[in-house]
């Protein structure tokens, strides 16, 4: 249970940090790093739409993170959060692949995020398998 508890705490904190990083006050610098050389149209409504969309992604991650932190108290009971995390990481990984290939995301940034997704997916599967085996 200790390894599962650590996973829940780690993913919970990571997702809460992602929430903060996707809020409008912090996205301008992030977008400039993610999409170097792309005109972001910062003073136009389209940029506000982009910020709002990222904030929704962050809120979803933050919600999963909050549930994971709550679930750290009793990882066996909250085991179902793990496949939610795995599915989220798979979808986000696919999105990052798309962003690298077709949306001008900086290659180094995309590769780092893909590696992070793979780490969470692998760790999630290991913890999930261990919890299921120990039932």
TrEMBL record:
Keywords: Membrane, Plasmid, Transmembrane, Transmembrane helix. The keyword Hydrolase does not apply. The keyword Membrane applies. The chain crosses the membrane at residues 7-33, 53-73, 80-100, 106-125. This is BphX family protein.
